Amino acid sequence: MTRIHPYAILLGIAIGIVSLFALRHPLFALMTGLIAVLGLDMILRVGKDWPRKKIDRRDD
């Protein structure tokens, strides 16, 4: 099992808390925080190696 990125956890919880204070709906805030954690984790893991990826250019 892979670990969740720590910044994704912090930002996802912050997004969930902000949505709770803004909308006053606990279930929506919980789902928003969970989706934010998972989405940010995917973005941070894909973006980690982005500048160092080698582009395969073939001259035909």
Query: Whole-number average pLDDT?
Result: 86
Total beta-strand segments: 0
Backbone structural class: mainly alpha
The amount of beta strand, in percent, is under 5%
Helix content: 55-70%
> Could you give a short account of the major beta sheet?
none
What integer value in Å does the Rg equal?
Answer: 17 Å
Instruction: Point out poorly predicted stretches.
Output: none
Q: Which word captures the global form?
A: elongated
Distance between the termini: 42 Å
The total of helices stands at 2
Protein model, in words:
This protein starts with 5 loop residues before the first helix and ends in a 13-residue tail after the last helix. The chain is mostly helical and 60 residues long. The mean pLDDT is 86. The longest helix is centred in the middle third of the chain and has 22 residues, at 26-47. It is 67% helix and 0% strand. The chain has two helices and no strands.
Could you give the topology of this structure?
Layout: H1 6-23, H2 26-47
Helix pairs in contact: 1-2
Outline of this structure?
The chain has helices at 6-23, 26-47. With 60 residues, the protein is an all-alpha fold. The longest helix has 22 residues, at 26-47.
Identify the notable features of this structure and list them briefly.
2 helices; 60 residues; mainly alpha
